[in-house]
Write a structure and sequence with these properties.
- By secondary structure, the protein is an alpha+beta fold.
- The protein is built from twelve helices and 14 strands.
- It has two domains: 159 residues, Endonuclease, Chain A; 182 residues, ph1033 like fold (Roll), CATH 3.10.590.10.
- It has a seven-stranded mixed beta sheet with strand order 1-7-6-5-2-3-4, sandwiched between helices. Strands 8, 9, 10, 11, 12, 13 and 14 form a seven-stranded mixed beta sheet that branches.
- Helix 2 runs parallel beside helix 4.
Length: 389
């Protein structure tokens, strides 16, 4: 019988992590990647400890790093491994070239979400003509993509991003940060303009208020934010450091009312750092209750409904609609067949709860509609700024 051989062209719609890593193992030499959004964990697996012959074309838009859809840490990993990285504005195509042996064109970014969870589609080609054509496209784009990224540039961008995030204001999803990518003719069918990205971060709902301190539905959201400063920091008790939250995670915020909790906005969070994320003396003087709630998850790029709390999104309605899919813990318990699966019994006495992809989408759809209907709180006035040290 004739020996079975790998087909020269194959469509792929699943198991992207395994497919891409297998192609990489089969051609462990040069690696060429075109991809707008790159996360460190996924890239680390793809590089597999290799050094040297690596070239990556991606986006250098600091707004993408600020929103958490891409990682400066991933680019640093590539450069420190001896790789070369260049940036292009409005990049959207995704292409993986494994030496001269194979090519993968796909909808999948270099993220765990794309490799392991999302519905992605593309092809794997061994056909020499197809691989050569993909190589020609890469080389043409590479020549127009500007200079190689340096470690010094990365360090400057990291400082710039940190300074922006510490301000605690500005529209999430906006474009107030610079894009350092090269301008390239977008006439190519490989480069449609798009800002869509696969979410690859966690999301939490942070609770404000207590059973003995419930707000009225007519409370002004803007006044509430100015009073508690949640547009720049969410507070936690001294005894409960918020270890779950990582940089670029999304924090939805909900205030307790008489018979519900109402989600009034969201922001991008930063990992709690014990040495710097504690309420200062000036902050405790301005808000004495912070003596009992001194730990911070600092947030930035907040978006809040410009209206009364009654304009917010019902937390109870979300739990009724989604059941165990409301929270990561109840969803996991349902999958494992043990533990509590009732969301109404899960959040009591918790400072926050981790959401699922489904509950995050449910909230986002309704929050975006509320922001469109009522407008967004203008966070520029001085009353929304942190007190001076």
């Amino acid at each position: 019988m004739p020996e079975r051989t790998e087909p020269s062209f194959r469509l792929i719609s699943r198991d992207w992590d395994a497919e891409i890593l297998a192609a990489r193992r089969a051609a462990a030499g040069s690696l060429r990647i075109i991809c707008p959004f790159i996360k460190k964990n996924a890239l680390s697996r793809l590089l597999g400890g290799a050094v040297g012959d690596i070239e990556i074309i991606t986006r250098f838009d600091l707004n993408c790093f600020n929103q958490g859809v891409s990682d400066l840490a991933a680019l640093r990993l590539a450069v420190e491994a001896g790789g070369r990285v260049r940036g292009i504005k409005h990049l959207h195509s995704k292409l993986y070239l494994f030496g001269d042996r194979s090519a993968i064109a796909t909808s999948a970014n270099v993220t765990d979400a794309a490799f392991r969870r999302n519905h992605e589609f593309g092809f794997l080609a061994y056909d020499p003509e197809v691989v050569a054509s993909c190589g020609t496209y890469f080389r043409d784009l590479w020549k127009r993509a500007g200079a190689d990224l340096s470690l010094a540039q990365l360090t400057r961008w990291e400082k710039q991003l940190t300074a922006h995030q510490r301000k605690g204001c500005g529209p999430a999803g906006g474009s107030e940060l610079p894009d350092y990518g090269a301008d390239v003719d977008v006439g190519s069918p490989f480069l449609p303009l798009s800002t869509a990205a696969d979410p690859d971060n966690q999301a939490f709902v942070k609770f404000f208020g207590t059973a003995a301190n419930r707000a009225g539905r007519d409370l002004s959201i803007a006044n509430m934010i100015a009073e508690n400063g949640c547009n720049w920091a969410c507070t936690y008790p001294e005894s409960k450091p918020p270890r779950q939250v990582e940089d670029a995670d999304v924090i939805y915020m909900a205030r307790m009312v008489a018979d519900d909790m109402l989600i009034f906005g969201k922001a991008i969070g930063r990992r709690h750092r014990d040495d710097e994320d504690m309420a200062s003396k000036a902050e405790i003087k301005a808000r004495p209750w912070k003596a009992d709630w001194p730990r911070y998850v600092r947030v930035h790029d907040g978006r809040f409904i410009d209206g009364a709390l009654d304009c917010g999104i019902s937390f109870h309605e979300m739990m009724r609609a989604l059941g165990p899919d409301s929270f990561a813990s109840t969803q996991r318990n349902l999958r494992d067949g043990s533990g509590n699966t009732n969301p109404f019994e899960s959040y009591n006495r918790k400072a926050h709860m981790m959401l699922t992809a489904r509950s995050r989408a449910w909230i986002d759809e309704r929050l975006e509609a509320a922001l469109l209907l009522h407008g967004e709180v203008d966070l520029r006035p001085s009353r929304f700024r942190p007190p001076r040290a």
